[in-house]
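re: that complex we talked abt at group meeting.

here r the seqs, copy pasted straight from the sheet so there may be weird spacing, ignore it
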Amino acid sequence: MTLAPWRSPLARALHRNRSLAASRYPQLATVKPDGRPANRTIVFRGFWSQTNHLQFITDQRSQKVEQLQHSAWGELCWYFGKTREQFRLAGKLSLITAAQPDPSLASARTALWQNLSDSARQQFAWPNPGGNWLEKPAFTPDLPDAQIPLPNFCLLLLEPTQVDHLELRGEPQNRWLYQQQTNGEWSLKSINP
Amino acid sequence: MTLAPWRSPLARALHRNRSLAASRYPQLATVKPDGRPANRTIVFRGFWSQTNHLQFITDQRSQKVEQLQHSAWGELCWYFGKTREQFRLAGKLSLITAAQPDPSLASARTALWQNLSDSARQQFAWPNPGGNWLEKPAFTPDLPDAQIPLPNFCLLLLEPTQVDHLELRGEPQNRWLYQQQTNGEWSLKSINP
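got the structure back, here u go
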């Protein structure tokens, strides 16, 4: 596969904003079963293999998993403070659980688990997220196996079909819209900011 | 009215992260007429008068205005990079247009217009946002009147009914959920991160 045309400006933004840790923490919007929006910060974990799918991780017990069963659509809003530009990536979300039959997706999930720190892995052994507060000892479980993911550990993939890139720095501002066509090709046009 | 209990931790976060310009640029999620989420960065313009309603500005021609007619619910995700904490504020959005009959809301809209810079005001005289790109001269209109808002200038209010505050720095992380009851009072509980 070929890199989508928005990959190059996104890679440039990631590079030029690399001094800001938050530049790897975009915000992901989904829709709740009641039709209202949800929005949370999420850590970008790179692209899946040779695809244009963005990788994130999530706990199968988290609310966003329930939301995805209702609606698989997401929009990621990514603001880069140093270069003052924004990417909005809209597309379908896929949850890769422990039951994933596809071997390449299953191994992508395992690879992300193995790359986590001990403390990040330990969070997947914490009590039910969003549940009523439990006392501190519940948050110091034994360290999970570093090789084999806990069953509730999931890979979350976002496959963008539209990317809206806004540069606030231009005179006037610059804004581009990338849209994937039904044949998989990407179109690109300049739009008004 | 009294300040909602989440106002104090939010004010503290704003103060402690004031060196980061992006700490005043949270992300607002809404739902499109087709049921998919939308998400964009937006500038926080303070609270409206003595209320707990957050102020933003928007162009009546923007897509979010169409989305609000379909669903008035929004969720604001606010990540503070220096203190590593997140607020998620869910609630109803209200659009205050030039046709607003309530005098106090109408004057809040006018006050925000008067506080903008010339260049920010000029953007409301730009061509239709999201429309096909027009040449540069279209983006250098005459400066609008500094006192009387252009008709497409809107105040956008978010009235939170639930606020989820997560501190990543704790050991373990700390997370609180504020919920407004039907009598208007706020409840607060600690929940699992």
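couple things i noticed - DSSP finds four helices and eight strands in chain A. Chain A touches chain B at residues 20-22, 25, 27-31, 35-41, 71, 73-77, 79, 81, 86, 88, 90, 123, 126-134, 136, 139, 172, 189-193 (CB under 8 Å).
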